[in-house]
Each structure stands twice: as structure tokens, then as C-alpha cells.
Design goal:
It is a single chain. This protein has helices spanning 15-27, 32-49, 51-64, 70-96, 99-105, 111-119, 134-144, 157-167, 181-189, 222-230, 264-281, and strands spanning 106-109, 124-127, 147-151, 172-176, 194-196, 207-212, 215-220, 233-241, 248-252. It has a single domain, classed as Glycerol-3-phosphate (1)-acyltransferase, CATH 3.40.1130. β6 (207-212) and β7 (215-220) form a beta hairpin. By secondary structure, it is of the alpha/beta class. Helices cover 48% and strands 15% of the residues.
Length: 307
Amino acid sequence: MAETRLSDYTHPRYWPTWIGLGLMRGMSWLPLPAIAMFGGALGMLLYVLHGPRRHVVHVNIRRCFPELQPRAQARMARRHFRAFGQALLEMGVTWWASEVRLKRLTHFRGREHYEKALREKKSIILLVPHFVGLETGGMRLSIDHPMVTVFRHPVNKLVSAVMGRARARFQMRLVEHNKPLTAVVRQIKAGSPLYYLPDQDAGLRQSVFAPFFGILAATFVVLPRLAGMTDAVVIPCITRQLSWGRGYQIIFRPPLKDFPSGDAVADTTRMNHEIQVVVREIPEQYFWVHKRFKTRPKGEADFYKRG
């Protein structure tokens, strides 16, 4: 990635972004429980003020958890916004805190699955669903071992520059999403685990429809392709935000057996099932603000249409 100087972004249109980044930087020096308190309040403010995104969250939760009563669904939506707001403010800690502090704030569960694959010098793909703590998880893991991840530039170029520098400050290599797969394959084969986020709706390109919570969702077929090309072990990895600002827990689940199978639909269906299992364990921390079901099979109505 080309070197970008932050001094290039002095135009007045970037001033609000500078103010926001400055607040995040200042907030990052606070104890995590205090950040969690302010972040929860920010999340509830977003819940009240951001009607369109609140609608998306309610639709996602209502359709994915039809067994819950409406009051329980609404409660989950509010909890999600609190977790989301907390993660937004804690991103300053992730981007700027010292290595020592990041280690102190993160804990592990199931790390033996990851360590075993590293010891055996296997190619590794970490299957990382979109939970609110994923930024912290990737940063923490890149302290211990060189890694690679695929990223997409934010629209705001200043945010993109700051984010890129932050993510690469330890041992994380960044590959832009529009680069050929071979750029990632080389890194995996060279021994850098891939921190891979496969569960957002990016349209029909390189996707198939596979069930997620019983709903057909446009799902990338890239994970089975990469696993096949690199002979990699696929290990689900989830970063859980602990309550009351107690830090984060990075959870490794057992590697997927007999994956990939060679059947793209079967493999993406299995991937979605694995994600669904952990979402049910920590439902309020999944990225419900995303329009996961925006792309529909031909003839289906708009999933998020009001009324």
C-alpha cells in the first residue's frame, strides 16, 4: 500500500474528521470501563437518532429470531447498539494503545487450536465473522505473528489513511479487496495466517445464495476457493466484547473438518452454519447494522422495505 502522509488532509472538508479522530485519540487514554460507559451512551444515542439503521437492525433481528417475543427482539436491538457504540469508541484503544495494554485487555479461549496449526506449520485461514470486537482481535493477534487480511478503503480518505496505518502497525499485512486472489495465496503459503471476514453482502459477484438463519443470503464463495488453493486449515475465530469494559476474549473454535468439499453451495452453507452457531451464543454483538440480506433471489421483494 502506497505511503500516505496525513498532512495531505488539511482541506476544511476533513476538519470534522480530524475532530472526531482527536476525540477518539483522547478517549483512548481513559480506562476501558469508562470508555464502555460512554460508548454505551453513544450507542443509545445512535439508536434514537439513526432511524434507517435502527430499522435495519430490527428487521434483521425479527427475521433471524422469530421465536423471540417482540419485546425480547427490541431488547436485543438496543443491546446491539450499546455494544456497537462501545466498539466505536474502543477503536481508539485498538488503533493507538501500546502492545502491553492490548495484551492486558485481551484474553483467549481455545487458543490451542490456533497454536497447534502454527506449530505444525500449516497454512491457516481464520474465519472471522463480523462481530463488534473483530478490529481488536485482529490487532492483538498481529502482535504475536505475521498475518494478512483483505480490506476495503472507507469512503473518507483520511479515515482510510489512519485506519491503514493503525492496522499495519504490528505485523498485519493489508491486501486490497480488488487485488487478485494470488496476492493473498502467496502470503498464506508463506506462513501468514489470513484474518478473513466473509459474511457481508457484496452482491452477486463471487457469491452464491446460501441459508443463514433459514434465509437465503448472498454469500462469498472465496473461503472454500482459498482453502483449496492453499491447503489451509480453517479455524473459526470470534472476538467477544466483555461486559463493563473488562476487555475482549478471542475465541478459537475447532478447525473445520473435510473443508472444502468441492461443492461451493455446500461449503458456503456450512460456513454460514458455523457463523450462525456463534451468533446464537453472542447475538447482540453480531453486526446487525449491516444489510446482510440486501441482495435477493430474482423475484423476491426488498428485504428491508418499510411497511
